[in-house]
Amino acid sequence: MDKNKRQIMILAAVIMAFVVFFFAAIMKSKSAGKPAAKAPGTAVTAAVNKPAEAPAPGKSSFPSWGRDPFAVGSVPVQATGDLSLSGIFWDAKKPVCLIDGKMLRVGDEISGAKVLEINRDTVLLKVGDELRTLRVGR
What we know:
This protein is of the alpha+beta class. Helix content is 22%, strand content 25%. A hairpin with a 2-residue loop joins strand 3 (96-99) and strand 4 (102-104).
């Protein structure tokens, strides 16, 4: 056999192997999605979804990561009232703050308070006619 025919045969074999593995993977994923057949008279038990436990403040939910880089101290700083400022992601054009677990930008509202200004270490809120300042780490 000359060199070109041998290369074409090898290429054809590789393509056929790829097609076989591709279809085997598709068939495996289709069969994994179907429930297993049960024997007559056996009971089916449903899996109970338990809510994930929240990690301790300052701890990451991924154990290999160690400390959460966005946690300030051991617990979020309590603000005036019931809002807590957990962190500020500073960007001169689009700063973002984390209040009560929600990421907010200037103009967003949370619990009746409107975010007026986000600085490097403070957030200015307007609650009704009152202005409140939330601080990180203080």
